[in-house]
Amino acid sequence: MMKKEIYALKPQLDGLVERYNVPAFAASDPVQFPRRYTDKRDVEISSLLTSTIAWGRRPMILNNAEKIHTLLGGEPYRFVTDGDIDAIGDENVHRTFFGRHLRYYLRGLRELYARYGSLEDFAVAVGAPELEAPAWKIAAELNGLLADANAGHPLGGPNRCLPSKPDTSALKRFNMALRWLVRKDGIVDLGVWDAVKPSQLYIPLDVHSGNVARSLGLLERTQNDRRAVEELTANLRALDPADPTRYDFALFGAGVNGEA
User: Fold this and answer.
1) What residues form DSSP beta bridges with 97?
2) 3-state secondary structure of 187
3) For the segment 86-132, what is each residue's pLDDT rounded down to a tens digit?
4) What 3-state class would DSSP assign to 72?
5) Strands in 50-197 per DSSP E
6) Per residue in 208-217, pLDDT tens?
C-alpha cells in the first residue's frame, strides 16, 4: 500500500481510536485486570497471565482471568514470591490451559523475580530494548527461563504459556501484554515500563484486527504470523511512528462490532 493511500485512512482510523480507546471499552477487555494494580510487579504478572488466556470468547476470557487472580489471592506478586504453587490443582483454567500450565508459568516467574526483580529488568538483561522488535527476544528468553525453572517438574503436555517457536509467531497475546506495560495513554494502557518505547511495539494481531486491516488495505498477507504483524505495524507506523499500536483498539473494536 502506498504511503499516500495510508495517510488517506488516518481520519477514519483516528475516529476509531476516539471511539474505542476509551475506559468504557476497556471495562469489558482483559486489560481491566492489570489495571487493578499500582505496583509494577503486580501489573507485570497480571498482564502476562491475563494475556496468556486471551483467546476465544471475551466473556469466557474475563471469567477465567478472574479465576486466575482468585487463585493468586488477588496479589500476583506476593503469590509468585511466597504462595504455594504446588497447591494449585490441575483443574481447567481456560480451554486447553490447565492448572499444570499455570504452575509451570508461576515457577518460572518465581525464578525470574528472584533473579531480576522485575520483568522489565529481565528484558533489559537480555538486551531486548536495544532491538527493533524486542517482543520476540523477550518471549524467546522467557521460554528458556520457564523451561529451566521447571526442570524436574513433569508437565504432561505443551506448556501453553508462550508459543514454542516465538520467532515466527504473531505473538498476539505477548504483544498485547507489552502494549499494556509500555504504552501510557492515561486512558487504557498502564505504561509502567521505561526501557521499551511505544515506537518498538507491534500490533497484537488477531482475527478481528486482521480482518479490518485487510478490508482497509493495511494488510495483504493472509496468514496471521510474524510477517503479517510486521507488515501491518509498518503501515501503522507511517501514521504514527512514535506510537503505532494506538490503533490496536481501533482495529479490534471495529472488527468486533462489524464495522468493516
Assistant:
1) 94
2) coil
3) 999 999 999 999 999 999 999 999 999 999 999 999 999 999 999 99
4) coil
5) 92-94, 97-98
6) 999 999 999 9
Contacts of 107 (CB under 8 A, 6+ apart): 85, 146, 149, 150, 153
Helix or strand or coil: residue 92?
strand
Report which of 176, 183, 164, 236 is spatially closest to residue 205, judged by C-alpha positions: 176
Q: Which residues pair with 94 in a beta bridge?
A: 97
Answer for the pair 174, 134: CB distance below 8 angstroms, yes or no: no
Nearest one of 138, 119, 157 to 43, comparing CA atoms: 119
Q: Which of 90, 36, 109 is nearest to 66 (CA)?
A: 36
Closest CA to 221 of 56, 211, 80: 211
Q: Write the CB contacts of 113 (distance below 8 Å, at least 6 apart in sequence).
A: 41, 77, 80, 81
What's this model's pTM, rounded to 2 decimal places? 0.96
- Written as nine digits, the cell of 18 is 476516539
pLDDT band at 2 (very low <50, low <70, confident <90, very high): low
Residue 111's DSSP bridge partners are none
Nearest CA-CA partner of 103 in 93, 115, 116, 95: 93
Residue that the C-alpha cell 506476593 belongs to: 78
